């Protein structure tokens, strides 16, 4: 798999795609604003926040239904970025979340529209 | 007082709470969507604040109001310190968990306040409208005390004044004081105060008339949340911690009763001040704790506040506090 | 009766349903958020249950009430069996689909019940409050009959008593009976019963006064959902299945009319019992079917119940059932 | 008129808007869940439409109604053209952004309309109920003019009549006209018309009595949204664009005042027509622009309409328009 | 990594999985219906739409809370499909979104139940 | 790509990541509780549930808006776990869902904080 800026899928003649990384950060709702501010400061090109309904981790389980306080609820922040930026971003994100509950995963994706990232 | 307890236990509000609790414990899939639960909470804050403000507009500001507000702030600052000492002596909770729990008991539960207002009214008493302002003022100070307790604990454990990765204190304070529920309660109070009876008349078919019915729906939801919390958080609550959830309200109540002596409040107003001191937060404080003391476990403080203390206050506590207020000279 | 039909067709409730239906068929993006639709459904259950319970508190329990509840349970148990036989003889639906559809027609539609209550009132009739209890009781038995039909079908097809991967029957039963809408309807009924007129007075500005307006909004949403269902599920409904959605209500109605003869209900009460039998579920039963008979296709049973039978009952059915009840000796 | 301005500025509606604005600018986490905000918008459309229709049912259709509707449509068609010319001459906005902004000012803000209706009532004036129909009619034509302006701009730039990848014009038109808020406003108007006073009586405890209170909650949310928009969109608004958001309402108002002269409307009705022309859309038009002119930037048109023009109209504009209407012969 | 229709995980004896592609399309809510219609016309076997709460891109940031208009809000459309179909689908999707704001990523997944895709 | 417990990204000196698997299970809302109970019994370390708004599959399309019954609605359950656990989890999940509509995908991710999984 190619991580450089050459088209990732040599077998497809029609539309070029580029290899990037996707971060999935599951984080408590009250911390979300801090995380987004951090991502802004790190100048990632973009991110998208998806709500979570329920979950379980080492700290027990939670359900969104009916909770009147944001405490204990989670959101999923998706951030697609260039591989070269991953360490710069992971490090401070890890630091921010170190005392919080939550999960960070990194995976490989291809994108069209390279100018976006 | 038995009459009052019984009337309280068979009020629709308490029964809907019990229905929610039972449904959750029986694992029914009955659920209030999150967005709706949040809307109900907004509605309650808006209604309580507005009515309180409008009533202050009617009666004007006087020394008593100021006295009550100052007393409330003092209670909110000091109760966490007492709670923390008790927890340290009677339970094995880690210091940060103890500080977080303590914050909840220094702050207030606005729904307990509302339920007490109804009971006060049913008992034929009248309460000062500005107690809503007292409630708003009591939300936050407890958090500050808890942060100070936690910091001392961290220092004692040699972990610096919060770690270099933490948010600066100023930013944290802003986040806590600008919590949505505090802003809305205080803002609606101000608007009620500015617009007075004229404003109240305009919003009354929305904020006053259906209020108690909406409260029933909200309590159904709180019962569901409390029941789910109890089901999963039960094993965290060892004997002494559980007991704390039942006697700490009485400690807070006694303190408030003492403090209220020189304030010159009506019996109804005193009952409400006592209730505020006895109640434990489950909206503003948990959110603040996730930001400020993330190591403290929500399973403990939320279950204790919402699953133990709230039902206790709703059923037995409120009649007791009213009786106490009536017994005071 | 034509008057009644016309009055019915131009009631705001029916017109808002028609508006929703038209908007969905025209592919407008008008939509009621899911959380709000769920809240409206909670509100309706809560209001209907509470009012029914409070009315029982006023009139007391007697032999008629017990007779009506028993009759309702019998209807709910037996109608699915009849529906299944008809479907087997007149359509090519697979047995499991037929069983699932049958369950919907044995159970009830609470909104149809409410709309009928209004029409009954407009016709100058009065109905017994405890028919809400009958409605609650009729929700679930039909599901049991359908499960039994499905199991026989599976056995006949040599596929064991449900596969070894299935949930145990007990757990399934618990899931079905603890369905949120059943729990809330029954719970609110109980609370209404316990608190009686005193309770009703407290919640009435929320649960009684705005009820019909809220119902309009709910029916707008049901029209939207029905219209979207019709748009995508239309091709699944072959002639005989479609026809079933139109005549099966009449079959249920006739049966209920017979059963009601010895019950001594008022004409209004009889009209409501007939309506319950004629109506088809679209909240509790579809959820149960996804759990218990996942091979049955929602596109068929939901479209039939919500897209065909519900509009039929709302417009023509209800006036018919009232006329039928008035014609009975 | 100063009285009116002051009464306006201290109305609960304006104060809740200010509260929301302040909370968002202070970065409070106060927020109204999306589902609830949408439900509030549905409620407002439904209530306004229904009341308007019921009032037409009471007064009947006459030449004035038709005249007002035609005048409204003409205003909505022509204002965007004027706005576009002004923007071209006074700002450096790209043509497509200018066309999108222009569309917002030709269309209307239903909340501004409602707020004006209250102020009209408070001023002791009466307005014709059918102005709701005028409002509904004015929603869409402005969009068409803007599309035509954009297409001319694209042609001038040599980029064909919209690119071959675009939706066909017919589909686009359908999407725009079947926008949920337009359908609900018009549909509720029709239902109100058909059911008249009988219908109004049924829905009034839901749609009429709590209306102003609900409006307060909605305006709290609009303040929050406007504040968030201002915080992030502020730097996009250069001086001349910002100024446009303040004087363009006056341009629309003057035009409407001229057009209203031959219509024979009451002073209250004239004030409302002027308000409609002066107000800028923030629900239907932004959605249409994302579909039809995706290159235009929401940060510009939404901030201008919701963050600048809406507050201006709510506070200073409305009293001005009422004074203007009263000054007309 | 195998992209053909042979079981992807040779090391796992128990349940066979098949290599597929997953498209994640972040798109504005008002455009969603057009995108879904397009996917229907392209006869993809299925898709799932997940709401987004908030986000930031080159066009600035947005938050779902309180927005009364769909404009500017995003949804995430997930579509699992066979690699052979990717170019046929990406091309028209790209064309549809070319003037809109939004992001498209492609990634590798394995599925059980091959008949689904 | 390394699936063992050695850091996955040799090129990044700063923060170690570990290779894991991510399951994405799209399942009907009424079945969700059963699935979560199953995952609890299987002792996965955690999961997160994300709501779905709309979708289409072989059984036709659905939209969340306005549905008053949970029937026919979907949720997306995300579960990050060690590769070694995948077969143990997939098997019973597959069995539970065999008669239900729904989709299961498996993909590669890296995580920071190895103790979490
Ligand atoms: N292995 C996992 N896969 C997916 N989500 C997880 C996992 N572990 C934890 N989570 C999510 O992260 C939250 C906090 O986890 P924890 O910090 O372990 O309590 C949980 O409530 C889940 O929503
Ligand atoms: N790099 C990214 N990662 C995740 N989501 C993104 C990214 N860039 C943009 N988005 C999402 O796509 C939307 C539009 O982006 P843009 O077209 O750059 O304005 C943003 O509001 C985000 O929700
Ligand atoms: N290929 C796919 N990609 C993404 N989601 C899918 C796919 N196929 C099915 N789904 C989702 O799973 C649900 C049920 O699919 P089915 O069992 O095919 O009817 C659909 O309504 C979609 O939400
Ligand atoms: Na307290
Ligand atoms: Na029935
Ligand atoms: Na205008």
Structural class label of chain A: alpha+beta
What integer is the average pLDDT of chain B?
Answer: 91
Provide the spatial order of strands within the biggest beta sheet of chain A: 2-5-1-6
| Helix content, binned percent of chain B | over 70%
Percent of sequence in beta strands of chain A: 35-45%
In the CATH classification, which architecture of chain B applies?
Up-down Bundle
Instruction: Based on Cα principal axes, name the global outline of chain B.
Output: globular
Largest sheet report of chain B: none
Regions of chain B with pLDDT < 50 over 5+ consecutive residues? 161-165
Detail the poorly predicted runs of chain A. 1-13
Biggest sheet of chain A, in brief?
4 strands, antiparallel
H/E element order of chain A: EHEEEEHE
Could you give the distance between the termini of chain B? 18 Å
Q: What molecules are bound to this protein?
A: adenosine monophosphate, sodium ion
Using the coordinates shown, work out and report the CATH topology of chain B. Na+/H+ antiporter like fold
State the secondary-structure class of chain B. Answer: mainly alpha
- In round numbers, the mean pLDDT of chain A is 79
Helix content of chain A: 10-25%
Q: What does this molecule look like?
A:
- The complex is a heterohexamer, with three copies of chain A (117 residues) and three copies of chain B (329 residues).
- The longest helix of chain A has 13 residues, at 29-41.
- In chain A, the strands form two sheets. In chain A, strands 2-5-1-6 form a four-stranded antiparallel sheet. In chain A, strands 3-4 form a two-stranded antiparallel sheet.
- Chain A has helices at residues 29-41, 86-97; strands spanning 18-28, 47-51, 54-57, 60-63, 74-81, 102-111.
- Chain A has 117 residues and is α+β, with helices and mostly antiparallel strands.
- In chain A, a hairpin with a 2-residue loop joins β3 (54-57) and β4 (60-63).
- Chain B has one domain (2-158, 170-327): Up-down Bundle (Na+/H+ antiporter like fold).
- Chain B has 15 helices and no strands.
- Chain B has helices at 2-9, 12-25, 34-59, 63-90, 95-106, 110-122, 131-138, 141-156, 169-177, 180-207, 211-233, 239-260, 267-278, 284-292, 298-327.
- In chain B, α6 runs antiparallel to α13 (267-278) and α12 (239-260) packs parallel to α15 (298-327).
- Chain B is globular.
- The two termini of chain B are 18 Å apart.
- Chains in contact: A-B, A-E, A-F, B-C, B-D, C-D, C-F, D-E, E-F.
- Chains B and C meet through α2, α3 and α11 of B and α3 and α10 of C.
- The complex binds adenosine monophosphate (3 copies) and sodium ion (3 copies).
- One adenosine monophosphate sits between chains F (26, 52, 55-59, 62, 74, 101-103) and E (45-48, 78-81, 116-117).
- One sodium ion (NA) binds at residues 79, 105-108, 252, 277, 279-280 of chain D.
